[in-house]
Records
---
Amino acid sequence: TISCLVFVPNGLVSMVIGTKGKQIVHLAQTTKTHIAVNQPVFKMCHRTILINGYPKQISLAISKIQNIMEERYAEIPDCEKESMPMNLNEIKTTVSLNLIRLTYCLKNKT
């Protein structure tokens, strides 16, 4: 087997991955390859997708990825926008206390 690194514009990576990873899992299964999408790199306009498999399988996987990108390219504004670092001060997290409340209610039967 061999490995191939494919560059995909940042804005199109989510289209290749699909909802909850279903698209990329299906792509790997149908082409019998192992596919890994790498994390974005600061100031880069593209992300890399590593494909492992036999040459014909990799060729098929690349063809399918290219088809996905061609179909969706016009829909995505700024699809080649560079990656920016996360500002930890702007990230907001929320925690649901419903499970804690439920546990308290069950223990205290209130």
---
Amino acid sequence: VDIQLISISDEYLDFDLFETELEFTIENNDTASALWDLRVWPGWISAEPYFGTLEGGETDAITITVTRDDLDVGQYTGDIFFAVVPEPTTFLLFGVGLLGFAGVSRKKRS
């Protein structure tokens, strides 16, 4: 089953000639907490915030800023990459649950 943990409000951000900041949102579609990390390429694009934690159903707003000081007039593209990792508490609860199943299974065999 493929579950999309994070949804993004805009797939593409189009900066016109004079726009220097745009905002988009990300939302946690799951019930578990998710840590997210944002990597922006190239160096003339920045993001604030660039990491965070989203509880189930929460939304974060991210501002993307373009610095045009060293850019010639033209069309440029950049990439934004998300890495979403379930919070360690989720893994801990999952591990404890597995240990509980193993203990019950072992007790039934005895």
---
Amino acid sequence: RTGQIISRLMVNFSSSVEDEIGEKTLRAAQMARLDHQTGRRANLKTVLWRTPWKFFQTYVLRSGWRDGWAGFHACSLTALEIYLREMMLWGMQQTASEDSSPRQQLRRAA
């Protein structure tokens, strides 16, 4: 028995792994900026937890393993995007806290 796809299926092909990683990096930077603007904060727990959880979620719970190597590759890249986003958000937080330190405020006043 065959079913029908209920929603629109979107496929995005990249010409190379480098292009795919570049797209993931850009998307992670955009999401990190948005998270930073909305006040979301990254910490060690979220960095260490979200990346493996996203891989587990996509590979095991959403049956990425059924696609073999391609599924493993796609799930790994998805987890990489989460890791990059969390690390970029953490970097933005560090930059913001350094800019608001008393030492930086004195330098700006001078």
